[in-house]
């Protein structure tokens, strides 16, 4: 982990990742649509933007485009697709449902990255096997959470009758 603190980019990356994890977790467990939800949500988005931008700076982007760059692109896409429906209230009928889905997967992706980062720190273990194992476990748990929340999200989005 020392390499992350060798310069300001690494420090910003680590700080923004911790903030995003905290804000993302709060967002997942709190009531949706409240003033507090929106406030914390914007903090989450801001910390994710810093996290994503710095991720391209610390993983030798110009030497080789690798797995972590693809993960960062995936995170950026989820974040954008999660915020656009709320900013433009489009698509008309189910913009909130799209927001809930993409933002949920944004946080799950962050958890996957965190688990992969921790798993790769285990000494004498194969790097990619640990990344895939840690990410896979979080992904499965994410799908379970997704299907548990799906009915509720449809209800609060107005897609089903309460």
Protein architecture, described:
By secondary structure, this protein is mostly helical. 76% of the residues lie in helices and 0% in strands. It has helices at 8-29, 35-58, 67-88, 95-119, 127-156. Helix 1 packs antiparallel against helix 2. It is globular. The termini are far apart.
Helix content: over 70%
Structural class: mainly alpha
What sequence of helices (H) and strands (E) makes up the elements?
A: HHHHH
Q: How many helices does DSSP assign?
A: 5
Biggest sheet statistics: none
N→C terminal distance: 48 Å
Overall strand count: 0
Gross morphology:
globular
Q: How much of the residues is beta strand, in percent?
A: under 5%
Weakly predicted, low-confidence segments: none
Mean pLDDT: 88
Query: What gyration radius follows from the Cα positions, in whole Å?
Result: 17 Å
Write the layout of secondary structure elements.
Elements: H1 8-29, H2 35-58, H3 67-88, H4 95-119, H5 127-156
Helix pairs in contact: 1-2, 1-4, 2-3, 3-4, 4-5
Give a summary of the structure in a few sentences.
This protein has 162 residues and is mainly α.
């Amino acid at each position: 982990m020392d390499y992350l603190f060798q310069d300001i980019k690494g420090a910003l990356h680590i700080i923004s990742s911790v903030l995003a994890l905290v804000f993302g977790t709060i967002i997942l467990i709190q009531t949706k649509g409240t003033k507090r939800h929106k406030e914390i949500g914007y903090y989450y988005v801001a910390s994710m933007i810093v996290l994503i931008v710095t991720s391209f700076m610390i993983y030798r982007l110009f030497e080789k485009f690798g797995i972590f760059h693809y993960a960062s692109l995936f995170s950026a896409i989820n974040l954008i697709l999660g915020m656009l429906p709320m900013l433009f209230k489009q698509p008309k009928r189910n913009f909130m449902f799209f927001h809930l889905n993409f933002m949920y997967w944004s946080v799950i992706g962050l958890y996957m990255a965190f688990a992969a980062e921790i798993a790769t720190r285990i000494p004498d273990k194969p790097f990619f096997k640990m990344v895939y194992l840690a990410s896979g476990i979080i992904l499965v748990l994410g799908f379970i959470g997704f299907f548990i929340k799906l009915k509720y999200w449809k209800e609060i989005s107005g897609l089903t009758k309460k």
